[in-house]
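Open question from group meeting: does this chain pack into something compact, or does most of it stay loose? Before anyone orders reagents, we agreed to write out a predicted structure and look at it together. Recording both the input and the output here so the notebook holds the full record.
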Amino acid sequence: MKPIVVAVAITGSVPRKKDNPAVPITPSEQIESTHQAFEAGATLVHIHVRNDDESSSSDPARFAQVQEGVRKHCPGMIIQFSTGGRGRDPSQRGSALYLTPDMASLSTGSVNFPTIVYENSTVFVTDLAKQMHDRSIRPEIEIFDLSHIHGARRLIDQQLLDERPHVQFVLGVKNAMPADEKLLDIMRDELHRVIPHATWTAAGIGIHQNIVMDWALARGAQSIRTGLEDNIRIGKTRLAASNAELVKIAAERCVAHGRRPATPAEAREILGLA
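Structure tokens returned:
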């Protein structure tokens, strides 16, 4: 079976313990949760860190602690830091990049979220992209809108990205792109037209997580994404017990589509990482 990268977004910036006690908040919880997800088949971890009060943090020391633990307990796993903006001072969103994770998220445009405007000005995006380029950190381009594909193309033209970036379509955020299969086809086709050598994945938020995984698998995506950042439930009546449980479900869906979770070495080859 053809391998596919299974990415796990372990924490995010929104869910709290009151929403699901399994959401890992402290660095030690995040390391343990990632290790369990790694054992279940995930080979890429997307990391947000939190303060002790569970609010979003940009503290490089926390990123460093999680990165060190993941490298120790999950050999070869791809480490991806978030530079996302919910609850974080814009000037600090790239503060941990000096730690040189394998990857970092990069949104190439602004979008309305339910409670905030997620602002990513051209100057700000270009600066983050340059920091990643200079440190050989591979960006994952977060696409919330069709124009964001063209924002990525501009970064390629400026030689801040190579011709084979990794792109993630985010579907199901209220006020942004809905989880619509036809819309995913439009976005994927436009990506292949504008950036023909890009690898891609898609994230379904909340109840859309599994169906978006199925759509991505059916279309030959190079990666799928799961995790408590995006979805804290197994169904209407039960909370997910862990990130590992969600990864196991993702692995089962891979098999149903004739795919299998990639090994760490395969995941790095698929995404163009050393």
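Observations to bring back to the group:
Residues 52 and 125 are 29 Å apart (CA to CA).
The longest strand covers residues 2-9.
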